UniProtKB/TrEMBL annotation:
Residues in the signal sequence: 1-32
Keywords assigned: Cell membrane, Electron transport, Heme, Iron, Membrane, Metal-binding, Repeat, Signal, Transport
Source organism (scientific name): Paraburkholderia fungorum
Binding residues annotated for heme c 3, in chain numbering: 342, 345-346
Protein name as annotated: Cytochrome c, mono-and diheme variants
GO molecular function annotation: electron transfer activity; heme binding; iron ion binding; oxidoreductase activity, acting on CH-OH group of donors
Major subcellular location class: membrane
A Gene Ontology term for the protein's cellular component: plasma membrane
Xref: InterPro entries: Cyt_c-like_dom (IPR009056), Cyt_c-like_dom_sf (IPR036909), Cyt_C_IC (IPR008168), Cytochrome_c-type_DH (IPR051459), Membr-bd_ADH_cyt_c (IPR014353)
Cofactor note: Binds 3 heme c groups covalently per subunit.
Chain sites annotated for binding heme c 2: 206, 209-210
Keyword Lipoprotein: no
Residues annotated as domain Cytochrome c: 44-147, 191-306, 329-419
Positions that bind heme c 1: 58, 61-62
Length: 453
């Protein structure tokens, strides 16, 4: 399940911080929802709305595991209790079927419910604030006429009063979530870049994961004009670290071409890396369905973001580790663990097999400051999911059930420092911390088999 832990921490801290400053501001008055005569069953508009809903990945958050699409109920855990996504199907009594366009618009772009309550920012309305009026009309047409109604009541938050009061969120929203402003294409030198910026900043809400947040939990930058923290890499979400999407040559996508980015978004795999964690959902539910023109526009826009660290040197392949492994020297810490468990897929030269098993040499995931993703993928394993244009699925086995914390630390450090990689190192106690928070299950044994470890 995506986002559980982190959103929660954000929500918790936001609620806490706002509780503290609430006394200064006093409660906000609830704004009355306006209504506008607007409705349409136009097939082309509904189809366009469906496309936009995919670009916005509404389904990933608004569907529970094995629940009906868009009926809500996905849990977002917080230390003060849980919140649940809501039913956004057109059922008139439990969903949004009786909402006017103005009410729907206000919830999506401003985070305000028809009754004046503010939504938790787990709903990425600070990003959706950039959507154009036309796109909002298309989304409304789709959610009122293109989605099957499902009668399913929203689950109330599992947060006890007084923390469950929503008015501090209203202050947060006034401070940090901009009012909808028409997206200004004039900032961008050509229409393709402007389209890419609009999609990345708005519907794609890439910054919700890839931009660092402040202590009050708002994203430090909502677009490139806001400064170099935009898309410079976020805190772990469910134990997966959203890496930098800026031009940093080692820790970001500086070494990736526009075509690499397009391929990654459409298939989750390139010569450099494979998608995992929350990014798997983004590729599966959203990016793979976007038109080539739109994915290309997003990639071109991302390629305009300069490196956030001018001192970061380009990656250069180094043959030392591969040579040692090939000549039978596994004396370096972690080298023997790597030789025995990893070479069959990632190879002794760390180059993997493009499109099948990701390269580890030069991979930004292995060179970022935070090694949580690497430890997590080793402990829990992961599956590279098939997409429309790359249908095969490949699995990275879980090693947590048979490698000790010290072995995982050693092999993590081996892959983060071999083949020219310059990642920082970790200790067995760093591994122990991650182990407490991620699933580490032994695979099922066939009948009659005995586990040898
Ligand atoms: C990252 C997760 C996430 C994504 C993506 C997301 N939502 Fe939400 N949304 C939520 C959560 C959680 C809530 C409930 C928040 C609360 O209870 O305060 C919500 C609430 C809403 C509401 C208010 C419903 C009500 O009954 O109050 C609407 C409308 C809505 N979302 C529409 C959308 C649309 C349309 C999209 C796609 C363009 C979308 N959401 C994408 C998480 C998400
Ligand atoms: C739900 C959180 C989430 C959202 C939203 C999200 N990402 Fe990611 N993304 C991740 C995580 C986690 C990783 C690291 C795992 C990986 O490399 O696949 C990642 C990795 C990536 C990578 C690979 C970078 C590398 O160095 O390996 C690219 C490219 C990327 N994201 C692009 C995007 C774009 C473009 C968007 C918006 C359309 C987006 N992401 C939205 C979580 C997210
Ligand atoms: C059976 C083949 C296989 C073996 C053995 C294997 N891996 Fe993987 N590995 C994969 C696949 C497939 C992925 C992509 C998973 C995904 O995208 O969700 C992956 C992903 C990774 C990643 C994340 C990089 C990225 O861009 O996705 C790291 C780091 C990694 N493996 C390290 C290791 C180490 C270290 C070992 C040995 C302890 C190992 N792997 C053993 C197949 C394997």
């Amino acid at each position: 399940m995506r986002m559980t832990m982190n959103i929660s921490k954000r929500v918790r801290s936001a609620a806490w911080a706002l509780g503290a400053c609430a006394a200064l501001f006093g409660p906000l008055t609830a704004d009355a929802a306006q209504s506008s005569p607007d409705n349409t069953g136009d097939a082309a508009l509904i189809a366009h709305g469906e496309y936009l809903a995919r670009a916005g990945d509404c389904i990933a958050c608004h569907s529970a595991p094995s629940g009906k699409p868009f009926a809500g109920g996905l849990k977002f855990d917080t230390p003060i209790g849980a919140i649940y996504s809501t039913n956004i199907t057109p059922d008139r009594s439990t969903g949004i079927g009786s909402w006017t366009f103005a009410q729907f618009d206000r919830a999506v772009r401003e985070g305000v419910r028809p009754n004046g309550d503010t939504l938790y920012p787990a709903m990425p309305y600070p990003s959706y604030a950039r959507l154009s009026d036309d796109d909002m009309h298309a989304l409304y047409a789709y959610f009122t006429h293109g989605v099957a109604p499902v009668a399913q009541n929203n689950r109330p938050v599992d947060i006890v009063w007084p923390l469950s009061m929503r008015w501090p969120l209203g202050i947060w929203r006034h401070l940090f979530a901009p009012n909808p402003q028409a997206f200004d294409a004039a900032h961008y030198s050509d229409p393709v870049l402007a389209r890419g910026a609009y999609l990345v900043q708005g519907l794609g809400h890439c910054g919700a994961c890839h931009t660092p947040r402040s202590v009050t939990m708002q994203e430090l930058a909502l677009d490139d004009l806001d400064g170099p923290s935009y898309l410079s890499g976020g805190a772990p979400i469910d134990g997966w670290v959203p890496s930098s999407l800026r031009g940093n040559p080692r820790t970001g996508v500086g070494a990736w071409s526009e075509a690499d980015l397009v391929q990654f978004l459409k298939t989750g795999r390139t010569a450099h890396a494979a998608a995992f964690g929350g990014m798997t959902d983004v590729v599966q539910h959203s990016a793979q369905y976007m038109s080539d023109a739109d994915v290309t526009a997003m990639a071109r826009y991302i390629k305009t973001l300069p490196s956030s660290d001018p001192a970061e040197k380009p990656y250069v392949y180094d043959d030392t580790a591969a040579h040692a492994l090939r000549t039978g020297d596994a004396s370096a810490p972690g080298a023997a663990v790597y030789r025995d468990n990893c070479t069959s897929c990632h190879r002794s030269d760390g180059r993997g097999y493009t499109g099948v098993f990701p390269a580890l040499g030069g991979n930004p995931v292995l060179q970022g400051k935070d090694a949580t993703s690497v430890i997590h993928v080793l402990l829990s394993g992961s599956a590279l999911q098939g997409t429309k244009t790359a249908p095969s699925t490949f699995t990275m086995p879980a090693f947590g059930w048979r490698l000790s914390d010290a072995e995982v630390a050693d092999v993590t450090n081996f892959v983060r420092t071999s083949w020219g990689n310059t990642g920082s190192t970790v200790t067995a106690s760093d591994v122990a911390k991650v182990r407490k928070t991620v699933p580490v299950a032994a695979p099922e044994l066939p009948p009659g088999a005995i586990r040898s470890h």
